[in-house]
């Protein structure tokens, strides 16, 4: 029984890994690497407690992202009570502070899409499935986001 | 510096994010190959090189196994008399960070009181159960810092230590990252839902707490 249980656990690890990776990227795109990572750890714990729900979901990565979004809202409320946590600058901000600040100023949906497509290299279809919007909406949000970023960063937005 | 497009700049930013996400998940598996979108190979190679250069200090700090390195006095290295460190587990403050010292004769381990789940969660040493445990989500670690329960990402992180005569040196410049857990497991069993540290008969009575109430 123990061996069968272990086998099932290994199957679930293999099933969960790619979906959790995508959800972690989407959460980092939406909330930044610090909060995104913390929330992804919670999402992982949730996944282990809700294996059947997740395995029967049509879009497991998207499901995990939505679970993470509601966890993150609670986490951000908690963080507001501990402002020292908020003061920490994530490493990506150190790597390119100007771009980081420009991304921070984008509406959440535009930032999520632009980070998933251009930073993490997801396709429009993958992004649409993960975030739960249509492919047309991804193109639309991306176009708006890139236009705003170019306007904020000047010239072509490069260095 | 070579002129780059906004897309290449975003890609470089993404590489740093990816490295950070991996480090925080304590994941050593190779990165899953990502499609190279609308970029010439040369641009991608330059971007990757820049990202690696940017991420080197982070990797050096978090991933380095400083266990084998010699600890020398200097900034960030804390010295204290070994006589002041009691046998068993005690709690000290290192640069404002609570640290549990576990002493067994001349062997001292410095566990960072971070449960490796959500930031700011308190960690307790339970002297009667001989475990480190967190009352918030039931993360638990044994006396050697190995994760034994709860949603922590892995074993407890440590600062390298060295005993030199009657002095204990703690190197707060480096962190030895605990091994990654295979998966999240059940929170620590407190036995019939006993309350935490509520006197005799409770779970973890007389806890040594990293954060006082």
What does this structure look like?
The complex is a heterodimer of chains A (159) and B (213). Chain A has 159 residues and is mostly helical. Chain A has 10 helices and no strands. In chain A, helix 9 packs across helix 10. With 213 residues, chain B is an alpha+beta fold. Chain B contains 2 helices and 12 strands; from the N terminus they run ααββββββββββββ. A 5-stranded antiparallel beta sheet of chain B has the order 8-7-6-5-12, with no helix packed on it. A 4-stranded antiparallel beta sheet of chain B has the order 2-3-4-9, with no helix packed on it. A 3-stranded antiparallel beta sheet of chain B has the order 1-11-10, with no helix packed on it. The longest helix of chain B has 23 residues, at 41-63. Chain B is flat and about 65 Å long. Chain A binds chain B through residues 9, 12-13, 18, 21, 24-25, 28, 33-34, 36-38, 40-42, 44-45, 48, 75, 82, 85, 90-92, 94-96, 99-100, 103, 114-115, 117-123, 146, 149-150, 153, 156-159, and chain B through 1, 3-14, 16-21, 24-25, 32, 34-37, 51, 54-55, 58, 117-120, 137, 151, 153, 182-185.
Key attributes of the depicted protein:
heterodimer, A: mainly alpha, globular, B: 213 residues, alpha+beta, 5-stranded antiparallel β-sheet, 23% strand
Offer a quick outline of the entry.
The complex is a heterodimer of chains A (159) and B (213). With 159 residues, chain A is mainly alpha-helical. Chain A is 82% helix and 0% strand.
